[in-house]
Amino acid sequence: MSAPVRVLLVDDQHLVRTGFRVILEIEDDIEVVGEAADGQRAVSMATALRPDVVLMDVEMPVLDGLEATRRITGDATPGGPAVLILTTFDRDDYLFAALRAGASGFLLKNGTPEDLIEAVRVVARGEGLIAPALTRRVISTFARPGAVPPDPRYDAATADLTPREREVLELVARGASNAEIADVLRVGEATVKTHVSRVLAKLGLRDRVQAVVFAYEHGVVRPGG
């Protein structure tokens, strides 16, 4: 039996944290290892506890969740925590800022307990997740030329990709699974996984969500292309 997913809860409302704890700890494969009521405390606890997933609110005192996410994901240590943003506020600026800060997932608090549990498992596996209701908005916004200023860290990054890696990035950005990519390229899924890992490493990205954002921001793919 594999070790449970270790989760750090970050929200300035005690009742909210308690509710999340109750929902998550019912599951045998999830363990809540700590709670923080502000972003600054979250950063220090993430360093000390090394959870697999940090469940992060946005609007909090001392340090907001977006800056806390940036500091946590800025630690390039392999196996560092993945951040799952969970907020009441359905705002584009929060969504895009969270993705830019390095969040691996973004959910709204009006979801179901099952949505939360599955999201924690998904980001713990190293995959990205955005609430389905938000996915189309992300793609349409990032796909508009000039809609979001490019991140200067990645200006020349695609030059390091091989033609096959660029092809894989294009397919990832269009939402293709590893199995679908393998079918298109006529290679094995293990080969696809290797290519995806290399793309993420070369571009300094955490997961597939970040890869999608990157691809649309930098013109690797265009809608309908």
TrEMBL record:
The keyword rRNA-binding does not apply. GO terms for molecular function: DNA binding. Residues 6-124 form the Response regulatory domain. Transmembrane segments: none annotated. GO terms for biological process: phosphorelay signal transduction system; regulation of DNA-templated transcription. Keywords: DNA-binding, Phosphoprotein, Transcription, Transcription regulation. Residues 154-219 form the HTH luxR-type domain. CDD domains: LuxR_C_like, REC_NarL-like. It comes from the Bacteria. Coiled coil: none annotated. SUPFAM superfamilies: C-terminal effector domain of the bipartite response regulators, CheY-like. The modification 4-aspartylphosphate is found at residue 57. This is Response regulator transcription factor.
